[in-house]
């Protein structure tokens, strides 16, 4: 087909004057009956690559898609470009027998150009028998990364596509995905038998997207409310890993007058469809969802994507952030990161096959490295997908807008390269770091790597530093990651040369998410002057009462006061860590100071920063249960089980209880598990310490377990603060 005619058909069916990027070349390859592999970022126009050729070719194109909930939207969109509703259909488990029969009749008559099916539906014998009688123009495998175990959304049923295609009738295949590393790309084409496919790979760079990582604190829900209020009326998606959190956060946003709704697979299909339509039609501004939401959604003006939890892979992260700013306009991508979330994700893998656990952990390591890195987010992300970003500063991510100091590290890079060489280029980053710092792990001993000359040559720096050296060495081209044996680190020619003739090499040390000095990029403006005055007042009260300052109010409580400017007791009770007892006992002096400060400095108190708490009956019931069972001297492990909590979660709930002014007498439990001298040692530490910070306590009390320290801290708070 001539270029002019193809452009005319584009205008006729879709109203566009010109093709984007590789669209025209891809469509011509499909029209020529050749296998085609398309790697195109979200918003690049993948669906047009199979929709237009399907409309122009003889027969029916089979579109295999994993998302039943979105098929209706896609079919409706195609029907909009034609006067004939029979031009597109979907067949899945949501249809009645009569609806399926009607669709089959349209397909038999030749009216239907596009048939959308889920892989599960494609494998049904009755559908296979029917499709054998149909003239098929080609197969389109959408979200093709689902085929690969290394993809972020692996689905075993996708592995059955090739045998089914051969059973129904061979025709050209076009596989499309928005995210795929070299490993995943090879896996897809091998599994689909597309050995001679022509590949089309678009740039992964989305210059309009801002990427930012923020430490996840106890106030993350409030931080999100404040962020959304700073972007009123704009569309956004918030991703959470659990359905429970989706429900809770959506309710919390609603309580704070934000038009939001939840979306997850546990909801009724009709309810999900209604929520989806409300979002597209702008009856609501925010969707709180699990990762099932958004694939294939054609909403170009999503202005922000927030990850409440760190995603399981960088591919998942890239695809989900890619739903922002598809029109080329503003797209803010904010992720809240905590190492505890990583530990939870690793725990979820337990019980899965070992190979699956290994893959999952490697993908998590990449995500963690991205989150903690101080290097340009865009450079790191594009490198992961095999693309080089040459700019030193993209000017549109948190690390580039707030750059960290660069450190000359040529000697350290040589050490890292020597270790890669000495272990025969046959190990992954965690093992390389173990050898560098001199850790006697089982693997190191089994491989006899403790006998290497380079063992322990990096013991003068922490593992976090070596992680930065190795990963930035990869970015600079001195190291590469093996594609076939994913994760094995190899030396490049450039790396071999560097060992013999090192030149200058600068790195930026990773962000330390355990460091209290890490600058938290919050949307709320903390008043440092007021905070200093509040700490002075707390210190003077503590001296008067002969108590540690943190027993009056914790630092987080004072920081909240220095952000919210409460001047009434009711407002003070809205500050975290302030119970009615503490408000009555200490509140008057703090409120008086804040009111005077606001008056003298002409401060307009930020109404929009005041976030309403969500009345949570279930959480309150848990706290009441804990208090009652401790009064009855029930074993804490049994209390955790009764409340469906991990032991660590129980400790957190107990800490919240005592921080709010309640007493918990856990002597019965401590007497059973701890030696009297040990208990007194920890107790005495908190009596004399200037802070109750757990990391500092762990440093000073290195001989004791974290659980024991937390338990004694709870006892100390109950007796000394309450």
Strand content: 5-15%
Radius of gyration equals 29 Å
Q: What number of domains? A: 5
- Structural class by helix and strand composition: alpha/beta
Strand order of the largest sheet: 3-4-2-5-6-1-7
Classified in CATH, the superfamily of the largest domain is: P-loop containing nucleotide triphosphate hydrolases
| CATH architecture group name of the largest domain | 3-Layer(aba) Sandwich
Write down the overall mean pLDDT: 85
> What name does the CATH topology of the largest domain carry?
Rossmann fold
Assign an overall shape. Answer: globular
Helix content: 40-55%
Question: Could you tell me how far the N terminus lies from the C terminus, measured between alpha carbons in angstroms?
Answer: 82 Å
Sequence-ordered SSE layout with sheet pairings:
Layout: H1 3-14, H2 23-31, E1 36-39, H3 48-56, E2 60-64, H4 68-79, E3 88-91, H5 97-108, E4 114-117, H6 119-122, H7 125-131, E5 136-141, H8 161-168, E6 173-177, H9 182-192, E7 198-201, E8 209-215, H10 220-229, E9 235-239, H11 243-255, E10 260-263, H12 269-280, E11 286-289, E12 302-307, H13 314-321, E13 331-337, H14 339-348, H15 354-372, H16 377-384, H17 398-401, E14 406-408, H18 410-422, H19 429-437, H20 442-446, H21 463-475, E15 479-481, E16 489-491, H22 493-500, E17 506-508, H23 528-545, H24 555-564, H25 569-572, H26 580-601, H27 617-631, H28 636-642, H29 647-659, H30 667-673, H31 676-688, H32 694-700, H33 706-720
Parallel strand pairs: 1-6, 1-7, 2-4, 2-5, 3-4, 5-6, 8-13, 9-11, 9-12, 10-11, 12-13
Antiparallel strand pairs: 14-17, 15-16
